[in-house]
Specification:
Blueprint (H helix, E strand, L loop, with lengths): L1 E4 L2 E4 L1 H16 L6 H30 L7 H38 L2 E4 L6 H15 L6 E2 L15 E7 L7 E7 L2 H4 L2 E7 L2 E6 H7 L1 H4 L7 E11 L13 H12 L4 E7 L4 H11 L6 E5 L38 H7 L2 E5 L5 H12 L3 E8 L7 H11 L3 E6 L7 H13 L3 E3 L6 E2 L3 E6 L5 E5 L11 E8 L2 H15 L11 E3 L3 H17 L5 E6 L5 H12 L3 E6 L16 E6 L4 E2 L3 E4 L6 E5 L5 H5 L1 E7 L3 H16 L4 E3 L7 E2 L10 H15 L2
Parallel strand pairs: 3-8, 10-11, 13-14, 14-15, 16-27, 19-24, 21-22, 22-23
Antiparallel strand pairs: 1-2, 4-6, 5-6, 5-9, 7-8, 9-10, 12-19, 13-17, 17-18, 18-19, 20-27, 21-25, 23-28, 25-26, 26-27, 28-29
């Protein structure tokens, strides 16, 4: 699973991703995690795997199938990688199946019963028939396999039933059909009437199985068999490169073309008869590089993320209400507060409403002349966009850079773009060939210094309730000037721009990070304080991996909190002895990127949008900012230190995929997210 990059070990990104997703599966199996939260982790694991096959496995499949001789080595590597991933996937599928069975049994002990179509009482069957007639009739329409050439019109977000039907008098000469489960109509799980303390649910799959006589009513069939299957398509869009088409039109065409991506993974009920399975696979047109896997009775467990709580709040995490910081509350102007002193919020511990209020005040204040912002993902009912539209209508000059190629959000971003344009906002559709992934805002002021907000995460209310992200709000002229220059760069990417304070990719970010690592090596050799502490989502860039190995060889202590992909291999004698990596899976998704360098004793702290991956450092517009305010520097360091100390939710990342938990001997296990929340609650009580 390891490949050599230069002279150092390097774990392939996609293998490390499989190890990461297994950490989520581990969380679903831990007894101390509330039962319904464990269900949610099963859903997250399944959803992640779907996206992985749509995107990463799709890319590897295309490389493996490449017939160009000049790409022969890449093609061979892709084939080997696909086999490695398939082996891991087969192993994890078994673990996943055991986890589903185990959690389902524990639900029964809590009087929550997931019934199959063979377990229901006559009264429950009557309820199901009534439910079908009132909610599902007309939503479930079979398609005969014999009448379609392929299944290229199917949506891989959904689950399908392959159905075999026959008539008594025909000596079981069968007809074959398939139907799509209408999950969007009523959800995946249907609540049946309670019986005392007992809560009953059914998969929609089983509801339809019960109602097949109604689905095929009037056709004379007397025998019905139904088995689930699902498939995952290649999600890579074929963007039209016609120079006469506008960017919007290209994206819209690309979104449409995705529906016809080739299936590259098929999961099916292992009890499906061979004659029925043959028809499914033939219509899906799978080939030898695609994954075809027998599975259990139910597919698409991503729906566990929306499993009904059954009025059992005690089986979920206790509520941690978002903290509205006192220093960012009250009647005084937030813009003026930021002009006087740098501010920060750390969501979801702190309320994202503080940033919304900054935008709303900017929209109304007569002291504000302009607002510029980059948008990557947006909430369905975005308060951010509503504030920007209000600002435009109040005569402010509003500029929005929106990334139309934010994967799986393209259509939504196109719709928002049109609404903003209609309101008079100047909308810029990113940079040709570069995704704009930076999270920055610039507010132009009539009096006093301008203001900038630089975040590690999206300006998205939904994300801010689930993802841990930090936002710096500053009026520091040197930072604000650079933020404004980023917008100039986006508009004119071929005009050379020097950033004095910010680290900006694809310009000089990688080189500046490398220079910071080299300084640590020099300081270590000179006997000065030397260490690197980083919290990041992914580290896969070969050059950055090599530089960290070089620093370790020089004796620089390197402590990393890496949530996802990690190509570093620790504990290699003489190479990575000084590298330690912790990975945290908990109630919130760890998303903030924070970089701390000893710098000979003067400590440099940075936050921003960029992971250490080639796509972030070379192919995207990313922004990382230094943090100068002493108090905020300490807060950013605290976040990293807590992450490194986490022994309850942390796993040891070493390149093996074992995801070992930390050994806890005498002391109490430390949970970083809980400790941070309690710290912020106590701190807020003291704020003025």
């Amino acid at each position: 699973m390891l490949q050599k990059k230069k002279k150092f070990p390097y774990l392939d990104r996609d293998i490390s991703w499989m190890f990461f997703n297994r950490r989520i599966l581990q969380e679903a199996c831990r007894p101390h995690v509330p039962l319904l939260e464990r269900m949610s982790f099963l859903g997250i694991y399944s959803n992640n795997l779907d996206e992985f096959f749509r995107v990463r496995m799709a890319s590897q499949s295309r490389i493996a199938e490449c017939a160009d001789k000049s790409a022969a080595s890449e093609s061979e590597h892709a084939k080997k990688l696909i086999k490695q991933i398939s082996r891991l996937n087969s192993r994890y599928v078994k673990e996943y199946g055991e986890a589903v069975v185990g959690i389902t049994e524990e639900l029964r002990k809590e009087n929550i019963f997931l019934l199959s179509d063979t377990e229901i009482s006559p009264e429950q069957k009557a309820f199901i028939y009534s439910f079908y007639k009132s909610k599902l009739s007309g939503q479930v329409i079979p398609i005969w396999f014999s009448e379609v050439r392929s299944l290229d019109f199917g949506n891989d977000e959904n689950i399908y039933l392959a159905v075999k039907v026959s008539k008594e008098e025909s000596t079981r000469v069968a007809d074959y059909a398939f139907l799509e489960l209408p999950v969007s109509v009523c959800g995946r799980f249907v609540r049946l009437p309670n019986e005392g303390e007992k809560r009953y649910l059914m998969y929609l799959d089983d509801v339809i199985r019960c109602c097949l006589p109604l689905v095929f009513e009037g056709l004379g069939y007397t025998h019905f068999e139904a088995y689930t299957y699902k498939f995952t398509r290649d999600a890579e869009m074929e963007i039209d490169n016609d120079a006469n088409s506008g960017t919007l039109q290209k994206i819209l065409k690309g979104v449409k073309s995705r529906k016809h991506g080739e299936p590259l993974r098929v999961l099916y009920d292992s009890s499906m008869p061979k004659d029925l399975l043959k028809r499914v696979l033939k219509k899906l047109d799978v080939d030898k590089n695609d994954t075809v896997m027998a599975s259990g009775r139910y597919q698409n467990h991503k729906d566990f993320m929306r499993f009904p709580d059954c009025d059992r709040a005690d089986l979920k995490y206790p509520a941690w209400p978002c903290i509205l910081r006192k220093s960012l509350d009250g009647p005084d102007s937030l813009l003026q507060k930021i002009q006087k002193k740098d501010r920060f919020i750390h969501v979801p511990y702190h309320s994202f409403d503080s940033f919304i209020r900054v935008l709303q005040e900017a929209a109304v204040s007569k002291q504000v002349t302009s607002v510029k912002i980059t948008l990557y993902r947006l909430a369905k009912e975005s308060k951010v966009v509503k504030a920007l539209i209000a600002a435009a209508r109040n005569g402010k000059k509003v500029t929005v850079v929106i990334e139309l190629l934010a994967r799986f959000d393209e259509a939504s971003n196109v719709n928002w773009s049109k609404k903003m344009q209609d309101a008079g906002i100047r909308v810029i559709f990113g940079v040709e060939g570069l995704k704009v992934h930076s999270k920055i805002t610039h507010i132009g002021m009539k009096t006093g210094p301008d203001i900038a907000c630089i975040s590690t995460g999206n300006f998205h209310e939904g994300n801010a309730r689930m993802y841990t992200d930090c936002m710096l709000m500053t009026a520091s002229p040197r930072l604000v000037k650079d933020v404004n220059a980023v917008f100039d760069f986006i508009e004119r990417p071929y005009v050379p721009i020097k950033f004095k304070e910010l680290l900006v990719s694809p310009n000089e970010m990688k080189n500046k990070f490398i220079a910071l690592i080299r300084d640590e090596i020099k300081n270590k050799k000179a006997g000065k304080p030397a260490y690197i502490k980083i919290k990041v989502n992914h580290i896969t860039d070969p050059m950055m991996v090599d530089k960290l190995y070089e620093a370790s060889q020089a004796g620089v202590d390197i402590d990393l909190v890496v949530r996802g992909n990690c190509s570093l291999v620790t504990d290699v004698p003489g190479v990575s002895d000084h590298i330690r990596i912790n990975a945290i899976i908990d109630r919130y998704l760890e998303h903030s990127r924070i970089f701390v360098f000893a710098a000979g004793g003067t400590e440099k702290v940075f936050i921003g949008s960029a992971d250490w991956m080639p796509r972030n450092l070379d192919n995207r517009v990313e922004v990382v900012t230094p943090v100068y305010d002493p108090d905020i520097k300490e807060e950013m360091k605290r976040i990293v230190e807590y992450g490194l100390k986490d022994t309850l939710q942390g796993r040891i990342v070493d390149g093996t995929g074992d995801n070992e938990f930390h050994a806890i001997v005498d002391e109490q296990p430390f949970r970083s997210q809980e400790a941070l929340y309690n710290y912020y609650v106590a701190k807020n009580e003291k704020e003025e």
